[in-house]
């Protein structure tokens, strides 16, 4: 537990030190966000520095090897997250270079996302995890065999795009994701203890322990970043951050067999994505809108709710989802 706490504190501190340096560099190269024209409430945010999500990787890479010895499992989680972050970086770079809000074309994004997701799926299937998936609340497992591959591809693509969608208000994606990963860390600690009591081999226990510490480091960086991203944000994470977080969340859950925990603890990811899908499908069919604007957080904003209040509600729902999961697991 000492190592977990220490890794979190150091990660937070390194992020807090790095962010002003990153902001200064970005200001010099004019790495600024172009705001979507149809979000009138965000016009004042035009020109805010973006791509702050790179700090998650600078921090993690700076300290991870001080806490962990190399293991394929945790390294692959980080590699998948970095792959998605790189995709987001390309998207951000195009937006900044041409000073508009349209980066990579949709088909280019989906090709990259599918490619990384397939690599993750085959890695998990041919690893010791195989087709095993953990059932929420009980920690019982089932083996889905080769069917785990399409499930992982779906979870990975859905999660990364959902995190990208929820990144629309100051502090929203960072707070919800920080709480989500924190919840997964807690549930993993319980799972590790269950495996230990059942006589699991030392490597499996060591693997989970390393993944927990990696996740703690990443969460510490997110927590440090929120100091600069809460309303009114002085820097945005950009797609490099949003897609990177989505990649980390999905890779983390898939590598440990926690795929079914994603829609539970990530209920606000799901709600955000569904609101966008429902809006598009309903409009195509009826030419009418269900929400004033999608995703849902923009609908609330159009309805007069402040950004901090929306972030607070989304964060609270995420905490409640975690606490209910924890309660049902322990009883």
Tags for this model:
331 residues, mainly alpha
Number of strands: 2
As a percent range, the share of strand residues is under 5%
User: Spatial order of the strands in the main sheet?
Assistant: 1-2
State the distance separating the first and last CA atoms: 23 Å
Query: What string, H for helix and E for strand, traces the elements in order?
Result: HHHHEEHHHHHHHH
Q: What is the gyration radius calculated from CA atoms? A: 19 Å
Mean pLDDT: 91
Rough shape?
A: globular
Major sheet: 2 strands, antiparallel
Structural class: mainly alpha
Range of helix content:
over 70%
**Number of self-contained structural domains:** 1
Low-confidence stretches: none
Count, helices: 12
Describe the secondary structure blueprint for this structure.
Elements: H1 2-28, H2 54-67, H3 72-98, H4 106-126, E1 132-134, E2 141-143, H5 148-166, H6 172-197, H7 202-229, H8 238-255, H9 262-265, H10 267-286, H11 296-302, H12 307-330
Antiparallel strand pairs: 1-2
Describe this structure in words.
There is one protein chain. This protein is an all-alpha fold and 331 residues long. It has one domain (2-265). The chain contains 12 helices and 2 strands, in the order H-H-H-H-E-E-H-H-H-H-H-H-H-H. It has helices at 2-28, 54-67, 72-98, 106-126, 148-166, 172-197, 202-229, 238-255, 262-265, 267-286, 296-302, 307-330; strands at 132-134, 141-143. The chain has a two-stranded antiparallel ribbon with strand order 1-2. Strand 1 and strand 2 (141-143) form a beta hairpin. Helix 1 (2-28) crosses helix 7 (202-229), helix 5 packs across helix 10 (267-286) and helix 6 (172-197) packs parallel to helix 8 (238-255). The relative contact order is 0.16.
């Amino acid at each position: 537990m000492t190592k977990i706490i220490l890794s979190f504190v150091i990660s937070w501190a390194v992020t807090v030190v790095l962010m002003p340096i990153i902001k200064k560099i970005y200001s010099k190269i004019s790495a600024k966000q172009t705001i979507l024209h149809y979000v009138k409430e965000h016009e004042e945010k035009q020109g805010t520095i973006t791509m702050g999500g790179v700090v998650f990787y600078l921090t993690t890479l700076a300290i991870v090897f001080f806490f962990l010895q190399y293991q394929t499992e945790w390294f692959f989680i980080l590699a998948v997250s970095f792959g998605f972050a790189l995709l987001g970086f390309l998207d951000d770079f195009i937006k900044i270079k041409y000073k508009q809000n349209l980066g990579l074309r949709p088909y280019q994004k989906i090709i990259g996302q599918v490619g990384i997701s397939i690599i993750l799926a085959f890695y998990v299937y041919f690893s010791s995890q195989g087709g095993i998936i953990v059932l929420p609340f009980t920690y019982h497992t089932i083996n889905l065999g080769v069917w785990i591959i399409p499930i992982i591809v779906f979870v990975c693509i859905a999660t990364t795009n959902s995190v990208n969608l929820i990144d629309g208000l100051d502090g929203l994606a960072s707070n919800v994701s920080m709480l989500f990963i924190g919840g997964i860390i807690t549930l993993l600690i319980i799972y590790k203890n269950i495996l230990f009591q059942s006589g699991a081999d030392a490597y499996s226990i060591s693997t989970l322990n390393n993944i927990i510490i990696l996740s703690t480091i990443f969460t510490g960086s997110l927590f440090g970043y929120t100091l600069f991203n809460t309303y009114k944000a002085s820097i945005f994470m950009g797609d490099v951050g949003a897609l990177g977080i989505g990649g980390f969340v999905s890779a983390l859950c898939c590598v440990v067999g926690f795929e079914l925990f994603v829609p539970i603890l990530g209920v606000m990811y799901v709600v955000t994505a569904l609101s966008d899908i429902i809006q598009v499908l309903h409009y195509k069919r009826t030419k009418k809108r269900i929400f004033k604007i999608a995703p849902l957080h923009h609908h609330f904003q159009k309805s007069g709710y402040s950004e901090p209040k929306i972030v607070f509600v989304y964060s609270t729902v995420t905490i409640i989802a975690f606490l209910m999961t924890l309660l049902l697991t322990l009883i």
